[in-house]
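Please decode residue identities from the backbone states below.
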């Protein structure tokens, strides 16, 4: 019982504040470094290329400054980009949400690592080669090449809205952790996080974001590993941790229950996890922008390989941390005992009770959580600003901007998004279960846009009408299921079926909460679904409805389709008319691929001389 009582004596020491402040200083310093010294050096190198007459690709954003700011001139290195990819997905949501998921629902979620492996194969072989050969600035450019400007605008607007709703989640999670160990108000913390991130993102561009992400992810991984190592030592051994988890019914790896209503099953994790991870990593602009910042397809594929190893390792550590937390609180649930008010505070309270007396370790842990938040936040801000410039202003509104205007627009968007994120934290504070909320909200846009790209790359006869009808159907069904589920949960019609907990060793007079689950049979079936199934349903709806609508409205003539717009896994099945004549140079540049595809609006890239092929697509 004493180990639970001692919690109140542990709070941030001056050494913890020092470690935390060092992380904040390095974040801002990296942004300043790439904003001034590295930026000037990159521009000088670009000017030397021009002066020496070296053959260069057309500037992707019309000016070298914007190309450097948003894409790093497509000359970034594999390892920092790989770490930035990890940072794009891993946030405080992953760290704190995964731990609470394992604690309350068992280890079935750990099987998500299998889905991640298949995701990596699908992304690198099916989707990435298309973006690479077209050399897009934004992934949504592809939708205009394949379908129409309207489809591109629809997807890009959905992306912006999705990221706006995701930003406060990224801010709120580390604020919870910091509040737990310092008592500082959540809204003050989230505002400070956002200001720091906005500063170095505005100043340094993608290079600052990528290189800052690299060491932030390192700090994050080290911090969690230190906590896990010390916690495992205090538990006795790894075997003791798994033994306690087994006795408490937490070791669940093969629950083959076919019910789609159960929160975690093997099928839900494998199928739902695969679609969710693939939809995010294959076509989401936050990921594609980093793929495109590398100089070649092969290097982009290597970055996915390193990213996959890193993300599997990190998720596995977080899952094991969930078992450690359960081992420590197996006789006293901290929520029931009143030690915490949100289930996502489990790991912070565990850190303070187990390693709180090791000065500097809690500070390192919170620095890791903040690093995860800053990396995700900066990635979203940078990518959303690019989409606003390239897809909304230039693509949708068809406005031509000067370099100065483009710079003001991009940096202004980053600033406005930061303000919106801070404001929306007040709304998020009323919700619970961060992992499922983040997955459900993101699934609406992710499932629909992924369905659109899949329709374009894997269904050659799909057309513009089919894409529009499919997208609307997918968005409606995903939104209906997701928000309906949240409303049902908020009203108490649906409750998560948590595994058994204990309070027998809790200090004071703590009673076991009543786990009385109401009859959910009267709730509309789709609103009872596990959050894992929202994304696959959105994807299948978009592709199925889009395919049917394409056939009804007149399918695309495949012989007039450009092969570069179709995934290479289908190239062997396409007629020879889809490929350019052997005498035409097929160099991978924007000048002879994406530019002509956008200009002629018929889906066929011309030769280097700018002439369009007679086999132009029909949409």
């Amino acid at each position: 019982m004493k180990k639970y009582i001692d919690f109140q004596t542990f709070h941030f020491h001056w050494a913890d504040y020092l470690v935390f402040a060092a992380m904040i200083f390095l974040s801002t310093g990296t942004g300043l470094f790439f904003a001034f010294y590295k930026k000037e050096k990159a521009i000088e190198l670009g000017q030397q290329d021009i002066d020496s007459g070296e053959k260069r690709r057309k500037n992707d954003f019309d000016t070298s400054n914007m190309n450097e700011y948003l894409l790093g001139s497509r000359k970034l290195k594999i390892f920092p980009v790989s770490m930035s990819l990890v940072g794009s997905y891993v946030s405080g949501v992953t760290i704190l949400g995964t731990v609470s998921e394992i604690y309350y629902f068992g280890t079935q979620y750990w099987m998500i690592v299998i889905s991640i492996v298949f995701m990596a194969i699908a992304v690198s072989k099916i989707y990435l080669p298309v973006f690479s050969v077209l050399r897009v600035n934004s992934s949504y450019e592809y939708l205009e090449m394949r379908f129409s400007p309207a489809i591109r605008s629809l997807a890009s607007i959905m992306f912006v809205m999705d990221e706006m709703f995701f930003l406060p989640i990224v801010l709120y999670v580390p604020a919870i952790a910091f509040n737990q160990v310092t008592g500082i108000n959540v809204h003050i913390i989230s505002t400070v996080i956002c200001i720091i991130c906005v500063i170095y993102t505005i100043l340094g561009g993608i290079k600052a974001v990528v290189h800052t992400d690299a060491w932030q992810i390192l700090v994050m991984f080290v911090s969690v590993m230190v906590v896990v190592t010390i916690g495992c030592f205090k538990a006795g051994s790894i075997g003791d941790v798994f033994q306690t988890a087994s006795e408490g019914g937490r070791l669940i790896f093969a629950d083959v229950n076919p019910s789609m209503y159960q929160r975690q099953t093997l099928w839900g994790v494998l199928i739902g996890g695969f679609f969710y991870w693939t939809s995010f990593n294959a076509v989401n602009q936050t990921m594609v922008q980093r793929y495109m910042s590398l100089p070649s397809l092969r290097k982009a594929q290597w970055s996915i390989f390193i990213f996959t190893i890193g993300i599997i390792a990190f998720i596995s550590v977080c899952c094991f941390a969930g078992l450690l937390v359960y081992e420590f609180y197996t006789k006293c649930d901290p929520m029931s005992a009143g030690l915490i008010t949100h289930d996502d505070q489990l790991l912070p309270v565990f850190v303070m009770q187990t390693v709180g007396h090791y000065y500097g370790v809690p500070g390192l842990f919170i620095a890791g959580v903040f690093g995860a938040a800053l990396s995700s936040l900066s990635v979203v801000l940078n990518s959303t600003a690019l989409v606003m410039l390239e897809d909304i202003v230039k693509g949708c509104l068809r406005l031509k901007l000067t370099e100065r205007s483009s710079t003001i627009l991009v940096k202004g968007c980053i600033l406005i998004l930061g303000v919106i994120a801070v404001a929306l934290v007040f709304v998020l504070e009323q919700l619970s279960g961060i992992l499922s909320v983040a997955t459900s909200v993101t699934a609406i846009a992710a499932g629909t846009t992924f369905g659109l790209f899949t329709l374009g790359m894997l269904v050659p006869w799909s057309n513009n009408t089919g894409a529009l009808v499919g997208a609307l159907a997918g968005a409606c069904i995903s939104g209906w299921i997701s928000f309906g589920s949240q409303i049902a949960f908020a009203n108490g019609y649906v409750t998560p079926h948590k595994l058994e907990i204990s309070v027998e060793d809790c200090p004071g007079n703590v009673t076991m909460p009543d786990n009385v689950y109401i009859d959910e049979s009267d709730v509309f079936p789709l609103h009872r679904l596990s959050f894992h199934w929202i994304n696959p349903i959105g994807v299948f709806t978009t592709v199925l409805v889009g395919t049917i609508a394409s056939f009804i409205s007149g399918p695309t003539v495949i012989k007039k389709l450009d092969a570069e717009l179709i995934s290479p896994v289908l190239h062997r099945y396409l007629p020879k008319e889809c490929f350019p004549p052997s005498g035409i140079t097929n160099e991978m540049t924007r000048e002879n691929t994406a530019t002509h595809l956008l200009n002629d609006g018929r889906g066929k890239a011309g030769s280097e001389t700018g002439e369009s092929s007679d086999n132009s697509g029909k949409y």
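Observation: Residues 43-59, 583-619 have pLDDT under 50 and may be disordered.
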